[in-house]
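Quick question, first post here. What does this chain look like in 3D?
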Amino acid sequence: MTNDSLLQTLKEIDGHLLTAINFNGPDAYGLFWSLYTDRLTWLPLAVVVFFYMLRKGGWRNALLLCMSIAIMFMLSDFVVASIIKPLVARLRPSHDPAIMESLSYFRGYRGGQFGFPSNHSSNGFAAATFILLLFRQRVVTVCAFLWAIGSCYSRLYLGVHFPSDILIGALLGIASALLAYQIYKKSYRCLGQHCAMPPFETISEGREPWGIAAMFLLTIMALAACAVIYAS
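> Answer (accepted):
Ran it through. Tokens below.
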């Protein structure tokens, strides 16, 4: 099989997977995922997560965490949106003449012109991976990755990304988080040699931060209630 034919086969698989996920569902279902994909929806959860991140280690730890998170999102969001997307210039399925007429769009939403890779999947998996590395708590990790997976699904259901956009975005997000965490860990240990800071290994110790899980579940329930109310 030649490279061109292999590429064409992969594109066809990509399109078939998307059309299997994207469908014209009930209005409440579409509204739920439309609200889910909005980043402002998750601001309360982000505040709670950030609070738990900063509660140990003092102001120096808070400064290092903020720096590391800023680096992570610069890689997972700014680099993806401002460099990779325009460089690759792959049309979103909602703008691709080969498939756009085969898809359903919730209330006409089609997103921007280019979609490779997905910022939502990159940012979502970056955040989930960083949370996994930082907290190392089962419940929080499950909530973080469920949120990231839900964000990815919402983009497919709304018809604004191909599955490969999501996959590559997720891999870039994971890589961004791994790099940012290493920067955070090395910076913390380096600073800790000169300042009175708790050992790095103790930062993630403590009881399960149930507030994060509670806020995640409350947000999901609020989204479901809003979707049902406003769709009726």
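The two ends are 52 Å apart (CA to CA).
The chain has eight helices and no strands.
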